[in-house]
C-alpha cells in the first residue's frame, strides 16, 4: 500500500467514526423526546457516568431511573431537543465531543404547579466517547447549562388531529 492509500483509508475511517458518533448523539435526543428508554440506554456503555449537576450525577442504571421518575426528568410531559454545533475530536478509540443544544420542556399538568411551565434550556453536552469492540458509545457525559428560560402558562394547545397528551 502506498502512503496516499493509507492516508485515504485513515481519512475514510475518521469520517465513518464521526458519522457513527453523530448518530449516537441524535439517537439520544430522539430517545429522550420519544420516551424510548431502550434507545437512550443504547447510546451509553453500561459503565458510563453521567453528570447532569445539579439535577443528577451517577451511573447509567440510576440515570435511566431518573429519566422516567416523575420527581426527576419525568415531571416533563413533552420535550424537544434541537442539536446545533457539534465538535468531534478523534484520538484513536476515544473521542471528545461538544454538542450545543436547545432543550424545550413542558411540565406535566400534575407536576405540582398551579400552572404549567414551558422551560427552554440552552446547554452543551460534553461527552467522552469510546470505541469498544468496534462500537462507539458514550463512556462519560457532563452537561454545562448556559442559561434557562422559564415561561409560565395556563394552557397548551394540542396539535389538531392528535390525541391530547
UniProtKB/TrEMBL annotation:
Superkingdom field: Bacteria
Domain SnoaL-like per the UniProt entry, residue ranges: 14-142
Membrane-crossing segments per the record: none
Pfam families reported in the protein's UniProt record: SnoaL_4 (PF13577)
Gene3D superfamilies: 3.10.450.50
Name listed for the protein in its UniProt record: Nuclear transport factor 2 family protein
Biological source species: Rhodococcus parequi
Amino acid at each position: 500500500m502506498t502512503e496516499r492509500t493509507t492516508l485515504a483509508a485513515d481519512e475514510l475511517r475518521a469520517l465513518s467514526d464521526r458519522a457513527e458518533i453523530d448518530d449516537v448523539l441524535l439517537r439520544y435526543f430522539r430517545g429522550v423526546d420519544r420516551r424510548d428508554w431502550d434507545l437512550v440506554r443504547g447510546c451509553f456503555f453500561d459503565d458510563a457516568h453521567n453528570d447532569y449537576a445539579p439535577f443528577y450525577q451517577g451511573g447509567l442504571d440510576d440515570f435511566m431511573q431518573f429519566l422516567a421518575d416523575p420527581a426527576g426528568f419525568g415531571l416533563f410531559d413533552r420535550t424537544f431537543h434541537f442539536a446545533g454545533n457539534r465538535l468531534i475530536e478523534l484520538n484513536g478509540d476515544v473521542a471528545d465531543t461538544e454538542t450545543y443544544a436547545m432543550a424545550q420542556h413542558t411540565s406535566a399538568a400534575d407536576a405540582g404547579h398551579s400552572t404549567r411551565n414551558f422551560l427552554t434550556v440552552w446547554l452543551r453536552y460534553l461527552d467522552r466517547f469510546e470505541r469498544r469492540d468496534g462500537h462507539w458509545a458514550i463512556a462519560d457525559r457532563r452537561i454545562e447549562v448556559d442559561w434557562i428560560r422559564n415561561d409560565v402558562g395556563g394552557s397548551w394547545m394540542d396539535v389538531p388531529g392528535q390525541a391530547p397528551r
